[in-house]
Design brief:
alpha+beta; 6-stranded antiparallel sheet; 26 strands
Length: 695
């Protein structure tokens, strides 16, 4: 090569009489080539570079042919001639010379061309030096750089594949990463096969690219003569370094892959927890052989894939267990409810970084009750794990049992709280229990730390029903507060009651009230059919994602084709609670209207109010008022007021100025029949009204 622009050699004019000592110190020989005479003068160090003795050289450049091979001499002559012709001031190049012992070594020369006033070259002065070590160092650096680059590329393969697998949660995710074209690019392979170990077989789950499948290899035994089987059987990789080796070692397999132009292959066992869980084959069409570094990188790659695969398998096993437990704890079926359309939905949360913990304590339940009533339950046990699901299952069962026994809603909730407290668990639960009489539309609601219900009207308007509540289940018993207020609301035909857990409402960083308003708007604009509406809401929850579970229950009251032949409502009225007495009156009025006894509405409400008031005034506890329709011998409406006192009511004559004593007289006057029954440690005062047949 020609060194243009290099600094000219600075040699004295009387050189070589006085050689430059600095050049000698740096083991550089110098020369002076007189182009007019053709003589080529060298100093002592130059003789050493050319491995010549002074008596072996006569100053003629052609004499150097004994050291400079002919090909190298031609190249040097051409280089110098071109430099002189194109006006260059200097040139430089590496060339080989043959030493006295016959070995070749690299030499470097650099010359400076001196010209006269006309530009004609007259003289070349320059240096020569032994460049063997220099070029050896350069070659070593290049080789090291190449090795570093190859190592970097190989490490990059592992890093890219590991990064792609980092987001793989399921086995199919792992397969998709490896099977994807970009995944093959990351692996640097032309084709890939991937199998999972099942008992003593390997089931092929991925191959790529399309068209590379080998017939008969979808399921193979581990003892068969295939490279993937050998890798699994021996727990060691199989490296095939040439097509000839492939054909010789695996003659059964080779004919099917010849069209892929495979030149080498690596089959890696996927080992996790000291056992093979699968195997992977990487087939190449652009390489032959595997260096030790290649093999180490591929083994590391196999280890990374195996860990991702094991993580995915554990995730799926854990998820299957969690899903099975969740399904076992939730009701298998929802009973058909005459007079209502019911829809329930459940969505598991997706806690980031969790292995199969897509399970929580959210639940729903629908409980058929006597007298055409139905109980609707929604609840949420604290936590997102199998323990929360187990507690939820137990709590759901006892709530159903207490409700089916006929206890009032407040009692159902209080007993469930005591039960959860006595489980000796660190979990608490929120819950909402609604008991609806579908004949009257009267719904009694109790709330234990849960979010309020919503009611949607047939015209699409939706409102939140604010319900006074008690402490969450488990905490109320712990803190000795088992009071659960009972709220009463009415569902007209076509109205829909919606109960849900907070996963449908709450958003990170958002206020609960804002979430309720958003949900109210979604319900108002949703489909009329409860199943379609439930699907819409759960789909929105799925799109939104989130770590929390979602349970949803919708109950829509239908219009009855025929009047109900019977019905039953019950209300707890606490002593000193005027709101409870108001709610009882509201329930009675709604029931009488629904049971087509509006003509008797005033009498029934007055008598019931009198009996309830007497129970509260003359006993120390609360009262339970029950309304029911009796059939047989005509349709009758029966009112029962039960208290904990065994003292029977007595007729008393009221004085002219007395304010009491007229209660039983009023009952006797307005009812068709009445009486008193002993009930355990207390009593029940009852009365009946004959409801005329409207014909």
């Amino acid at each position: 090569m020609v060194d243009r622009g290099a600094s000219a050699l600075s040699l004295p004019d009387d050189w070589p009489a006085h050689p430059d000592p600095i050049l000698a110190l740096n083991r550089m020989g110098s020369f002076d080539w007189d182009l007019d005479t053709g003589l080529f003068y060298m100093d002592a160090q130059a003789y050493e570079v050319f491995d010549l003795r002074p008596d072996e050289y006569d100053g003629n450049p052609t004499t150097l042919a004994i050291r400079v091979p002919q090909a190298e001499a031609h190249r040097l002559d051409a280089l110098v001639a071109r430099a002189m012709k194109d006006g260059s001031e200097n040139y430089g190049t590496y060339f080989r010379l043959r030493c006295r012992n016959g070995s070749l070594r690299w030499t470097h020369t650099q010359g400076y061309i001196r010209r006269d006033e006309t530009g004609r070259p007259r003289r070349i002065i320059g240096i020569v030096r032994d460049a063997t070590q220099e070029l050896g160092d350069i070659a070593s650096r290049r080789e090291q750089a190449a090795q570093d680059e190859a190592r970097r590329r190989q490490t990059n393969v592992v890093q890219l594949t590991t990064a792609a697998l980092a987001h793989a949660r399921t086995v199919q995710d792992v397969i998709d990463v490896l099977k994807d074209t970009q995944g093959l690019t990351h692996l640097g392979a032309t084709s890939l096969v991937f199998g999972l170990v099942e008992a003593d077989r390997i089931r092929l789950v991925a191959e790529g690219p399309e068209g590379s499948f080998v017939p008969g290899t979808d399921v193979t035994r581990i003892d068969e003569p295939y490279p993937m089987s050998e890798a699994v059987r021996t727990l060691s990789p199989r490296f095939i370094e040439s097509p000839e080796e492939f054909a010789d070692r695996y003659p059964v397999l080779w004919p099917y892959i010849t069209d892929l132009n495979i030149t080498s292959a690596a089959y890696l066992p996927l080992i996790a927890e000291a056992r093979p869980i699968g195997a992977m084959g990487l087939l190449y069409s652009d390489r032959r052989g595997f260096s030790p570094e290649d093999r180490n990188v591929l083994v590391a790659l196999g280890s990374s894939i195996a860990q991702s695969l094991m993580r995915a398998m554990l995730y799926e096993q854990d998820k299957d267990l969690a899903t099975g437990l969740q399904q076992a704890m939730l009701p298998r079926t929802i009973p058909s409810v005459p007079g209502a359309d019911v829809a329930v939905r459940y969505r598991a949360g997706s806690a980031a970084g969790s292995l199969g913990r897509d399970i929580g304590g959210d639940w729903y339940d629908v409980i058929p009750l006597p007298g055409g009533r139905v109980g609707a339950v929604i609840g949420d046990v604290q936590g997102h794990d199998t323990h929360a699901a187990a507690v939820m299952g137990q709590l759901r069962i006892v709530l159903r049992a207490y409700a089916a026994e006929g206890h009032m809603p407040a009692t159902v909730m209080a007993r469930a709280s005591v039960f959860l407290h006595e489980l000796d668990t660190d979990r608490f639960a929120t819950c909402l229990y609604a008991e609806a009489d579908l004949a009257t539309g009267v719904v009694q609601v109790v709330r234990a730390g849960h979010i309020d219900p919503l009611v949607r009207r047939p015209d699409g308007t939706c409102r939140r029903v604010f319900v006074d509540g008690g402490l969450p289940l488990g905490l109320s018993a712990e803190f000795g507060s088992l009071e659960y207020p009972v709220a009463t609301l009415e569902l007209d035909p076509g109205d829909t009651l919606l109960l849900c857990t907070d996963g449908l409402v709450e958003q990170p960083g958002a206020d609960l009230d804002d979430g309720m308003r958003t949900l109210t708007g979604l319900i108002a604009t949703g489909p009329d059919d409860v199943r379609d509406l439930a699907d819409r809401l759960i789909d929105l929850a799925e799109e939104r994602g989130g770590d929390d579970d979602v349970a949803l229950l919708l109950l829509r009251r239908r219009s009855l084709d025929t009047p109900r032949a019977q019905g039953r409502l019950q209300q707890h009225v606490a002593s000193g609670d005027p709101e409870a007495l108001t709610e009882a009156r509201h329930m009675i009025r709604a029931a009488v209207g629904a049971w087509e006894a509006r003509d008797l509405s005033d009498e029934i409400e007055l008598v019931a109010d009198e009996l309830i008031t007497n129970a509260l005034m003359h006993t120390e506890g609360s009262a339970i008022v029950t309304l029911r329709v009796l059939t047989g011998g005509g349709r009758r409406l029966r009112v029962e007021v039960e208290d904990a006192s065994s003292a029977l009511p007595r007729r008393r004559e009221a004085g002219e100025s007395g304010v009491s004593g007229r209660g039983l007289l009023l009952v006797d006057l307005l009812t068709d029949a009445w009486g008193v029954e002993a009930r355990g440690g207390g009593k029940c005062v009852w009365c009946e009204f004959v409801v005329p047949d409207r014909g």
